[in-house]
Structure prediction request, 67 residues.
Amino acid sequence: MPSATSPANTMFQRLLCICGQSTADADDYVLLGISAPGVPTEQWLGAHAEHLNSVLARGFSVEVHKM
Prediction:
């Protein structure tokens, strides 16, 4: 589980998508944090939902809903 002080709470600039494209104006921007037990670091990935869905295993998907 990402920590309470993770970049997701303080990040003001979006990361590039996993495809290498800018996410600056993307409506479907996803920030994904990955952590592992016993490892003090986290990995953060930015993605367009469509591109993230293209690499997820069958049965997993990401939907973005504006609140």
Observations:
- The radius of gyration is 13 Å.
- The chain is about 15% helix and 20% strand.
